[in-house]
Amino acid sequence: MVRKLNINYTKFEDRHYWILQPKTGATDKVVFYVHGCAYVQNMISFQWFMVGAIISRTNATFIIPDYDLAPRWTYTKLFSFIKNLYLHVLEKNAPEKVYLLGDSAG
Predict the structure, then answer these.
(1) Are 27 and 55 in contact (CB under 8 A)?
(2) Which residues are CB-neighbours of 106 under 8 A, at least 6 positions away?
(3) Per the structure, how many domains does the chain have?
(4) Contact 22/5 with Cβ under 8 angstroms?
(5) What is the pTM of this model?
(6) Which one-letter DSSP state was computed for residue 63?
(7) Which residues have CB under 8 Å from 102's CB, separation 6+?
(8) Which Pfam families match (predicted)?
């Protein structure tokens, strides 16, 4: 699956996020995905598999924030980063083409 994707790790404010999109046939749909794992673990293999499966079926671009975990980051710091990145994504794309997806704590 990875060979079929363009994957970029990009900085926003003082944090990073991933941009995953198909190498060919990308649509103008953007999925802003906030992963779960109770704020104590980074994305797990199942979540990466799910993202790849959705991209292969929709040709959408995924934006995935890479946030620090508890207890280093508090909820307010996390929410501020997520909100600001989401607003940035809305500015760069047609808002009606941006979809919000989350699981568990996300």
Answers:
(1) no
(2) 33, 34, 35, 36, 37
(3) 1
(4) yes
(5) 0.90
(6) E
(7) 33, 34, 35, 36
(8) Abhydrolase_3
What residues pair up with 30 in beta bridges, in sequence order? Answer: 61, 98
pLDDT, averaged in runs of 10, over the chain (106 residues): 86 95 95 82 88 96 89 82 96 98 79
| CATH label of the domain that carries residue 14 | 3.40.50.1820
Q: What's the token pair of residue 81?
A: 């980063």
Distance of CA 46 to CAs 38, 67, 80, 86, Å?
A: 15, 18, 26, 23
Helix (H, G, I), strand (E, B) or coil at 62: strand
**Residue span of the structural domain in which 89 resides:** 2-102
